[in-house]
Amino acid sequence: MLWLVKLRLEYDYDCTAAEFWALYFDPEYTSRLYLDALGSTSAEVLELDGDLESGLHRTLRYGQRPDAPGPVKKLFGEEIVTVEESRFDPATGTSTFTVTPGTMADKTKIGGSVHVEDAPSGCRQRFDLEAKVKIFGVGPIVERFIEHQARDAQEKAAAHMRLALAAD
Prior knowledge:
This protein has helices at 17-24, 27-37, 70-76, 139-167; strands at residues 3-13, 42-51, 55-64, 80-89, 94-101, 108-119, 122-133. With 168 residues, it is an alpha+beta fold. The chain has a single domain, classed as START domain (Alpha-D-Glucose-1,6-Bisphosphate, Chain A, domain 4). The chain has a 7-stranded antiparallel sheet. A hairpin with a 2-residue loop joins strand 6 and strand 7 (122-133).
């Protein structure tokens, strides 16, 4: 059986789209975001190629000990180590990403995009996520967990971005 999560969230920031992307892809900012704001156990930018003018490719690995329901912990373990691969296209102002958990990667497919465009009072970010889970019996539980984690992480990331922008 196949379950599907689709999520769209939007945030406004007091900066230009170019300033947003410069901070978003800064390795130091990324480490602070994951370790401080998101409570990850580890965060490492494995690869960062290209630039904001011609396009970027980033590979990020992070570990988390989420507050997950029992069946999710049983499947994925106490700590979930994830690899996120993203590609930024400056022509569209969009970074597309795939997220691969270290466990059950063959049963889950998670991906999406972050799109940022200039707005009258700064810029607007649109976060889209799609997750497909193919795990018999516990798919709906994993689906709800992924959606909850994504919403929570994006709210924390937006607050962290606003703090970082205000500090500059």
